[in-house]
Amino acid sequence: MLNVFKKIWNFSKEEQVYIKKSILAGFLHAVFNALEFGAIYYMLVNIFSKTLDYKAIFICLGILIVSLVGKIMTQKSSQMAQTHAGYFMAAHKRIEIGEKIKRVPMGFFSSFSLGRLTTIATSSLSQAEMWVPMLLVLVLGGVLNTLVFILGTLIFNVKVGLVAVAGVVVFFIVTSMMEKKSSANADKMTETQTRLTKEVLATLQGMQVIKSYNLGGENNRALRKSIKDTSRILLDLEKSVAPYTVIQRIVMGITTVAMVYVSLKLNLSGELPLAETILMIMASFIIFEGLIGAGSNMAILRACENAIDSVGFIDSMPDMREGSITESIKNHNIDFKNVSFSYDDRPILKNVSAEIKENTMTAIVGPSGSGKTTFCNLIARFWDVNSGEILIGGKNIKDYKIENLMNSISMVFQDVYLFEDTIENNIKFGKQNASHEEVVEAAKKARCHEFIENLPDGYNTIIGEGGASLSGGEKQRISIARMILKNAPILILDEAMAAVDSENERLIGEAIDDLSKDKTIITIAHHLNTIRDSDQIIVMDKGVVLDAGSHEELMKRCEFYKDMVEAQNKVDRWNLKEVVTENV
Length: 584
Fold this sequence. Notes:
The chain is an alpha/beta fold.
């Protein structure tokens, strides 16, 4: 149990001051609670000595009032401190996790599942913020209350006090056994919650497929199994500790009987006055109430420990090595020198060398799986190369502060993600302190101002998670507005027009043309007719660079590129009328 509270203490960090306040207030609450017995003892002494008068009654009432007021004040102070510590330690940890995952390589997210990360950020931390205050109130508060009462009992009579101490020792032995027993099931609970979160996420994200293939209900076996497994593990956790909870109560019951017996025996032998005897008997029935409440929550203590341990896993992830260069990047030439990269054991880029001149447009073409997106992602240090180096402005990108590097790069992805917020705030991700006028200007340049103005609340329209309420072309234009607002010198466009209609393709193309002035642009495109005017075209296949040059140069010397262009031209000429004519 002490180990768990040590973990809570280390986990709380900034909130340790509130835990200290909570412990102090809890101890004072136990002292004020014990004052009630002081008042009862004072009254019993006066009754048996036949000196009871109004003065004694008022003194007794005064002690009870002090006890009551003290308990109210200390309980409020203790619970407020405990609640603050519980919720804010989880809040600080969520922010810490957010900062942490920005510093780890993207490979972390391929080996560390989204379901597990979601479980930690939601379920595990929710359990911590809910259970930590409860544990501090019920477990720590109960233990403090019992210790104060035992100390008082020892002051009145050592023999009766030692009986209470013996009972507490046996109680904690049983509690230790219960903690060990619940540990295995608590570990399983964390694992099954992770699986459940993964299945729920997969079900929600794949709802269109599930509905179209009628995979809901009984057909969704994986989700149903995860729900049943979670239910079974939780029941097993309760069943595993139930016998020990019963034993705890038996121990406390036996200790209570033993205290009553010893008190009466000492009274009969004349060692314990009647007032003290009655007080000891009363104490024997109340002294362990807090401890019994604490014991019944030991399973939660173990689960809370597991929640804290699961969060600790993220802290152990190594940060991506960061350089020290903080000054602005003046020269934006990009050089790949013998770069190789693998996802786990699967090679993606093999000894790639390429040069991208500042203020030019470079297109990267090749079949799916040729390494085009990886090429771009390595520039932004989403991953680090396995060998070779990437230079920007003549310096290895690993030597720059990551924030400094990213300030020089803007990206538009094929799959645009917009946050559940206003359109204006989504555009402001490019520049947090931008004015409304700057946002509107960026939207106009991205050709999305008109459709935004036609929305119910204009720029204040709340869009669904991921931009679900907008079309693909609209999302792309908003992401380009975000890029324009950031105004970074290096722009990376990863198949930005792969899934849009011809009208949106035209509008996005116009926006990109406006962007191309005084920028280093790298674009990935399947529609080869959109990149013929590029200053340089890099042709990739199977992780290697086959050739690089202008469209005219490649058409003359690169058969692979020539075949791609001819295949694209054939697709562009193809139409349904021709197919029908051929079949007739």
